């Protein structure tokens, strides 16, 4: 029995015949923030999307390797993918609210899973928006379109929408790169607020963001995991020369 919430072993992923990930081994303790860093094209997003089977939506992608979520095989044919993506939620680079109200955005996943009791929905919508640190800004306009919010507010509503279905893991693919610095800072604070209740895996291009928010950093290059360690160690004294070269800005 492992105490890891998520284990990935020997992950190889192919776009057509081209191997984009060359055998990644990486596992995760429950809670905390792991940052995935590395140059453009190093495979960070490809790897992240494999964790909740997002590639299933694309033709021509083959995923090999072992993926265990609390010991259960993520890629088992019997895995319910809707259920999986509730437990391993995803937040994208571009805030992507649905074109309906703030409330309905956050309640979306709950309604899909059959919850229609208004009091219950109200409570979870409020709790999720509070956890995502956007409640105070939207509590008086819950029935206005989510599209009327700023990009940073939309992104925190997207986080609330993901939290509403009680995930254990949240995957975040460059969650602040489309935002202005103030909004990015607010989203970072949200992630710091929730890191002790969720396991967060964040792809980021920003090394300063990785060092500000993450407990652990994994450095990817050319489809390989070069090294993973606690964030201080990676940024102050990495074991691998490639990591040192990247963090000191010699490439990427
Ligand atoms: N849909 C696709 N079809 C074919 N090749 C792809 C596809 N998506 C990504 N790739 C290739 O897979 C490799 C890894 O790309 P990926 O987007 O995972 O890197 P990344 O580290 O997330 O890059 P970035 O930081 O620029 O987002 C690259 O060589 C890329 O060209």
UniProtKB/TrEMBL annotation:
Where does the record place the ABC transporter domain? 6-247
Gene3D superfamilies attached to this UniProt entry: P-loop containing nucleotide triphosphate hydrolases
Pfam families from the UniProt entry: ABC_tran
Q: Does the keyword Membrane apply?
A: no
Q: Which GO terms describe its cellular component?
A: membrane
Q: Does the keyword Protein transport apply?
A: no
What biological-process GO terms show up in the record? phosphate ion transmembrane transport
> What keywords are annotated for this sequence in UniProt?
ATP-binding, Nucleotide-binding, Phosphate transport, Transport
Quote the SMART domains the UniProt record gives.
AAA (SM00382)
GO MF terms, alphabetically ordered: ATP binding; ATP hydrolysis activity; phosphate transmembrane transporter activity
Which PANTHER family does the record match to this protein? ABC TRANSPORTER I FAMILY MEMBER 17
Protein known as: Phosphate ABC transporter ATP-binding protein
Q: Which organism is it from?
A: Weissella oryzae (strain DSM 25784 / JCM 18191 / LMG 30913 / SG25)
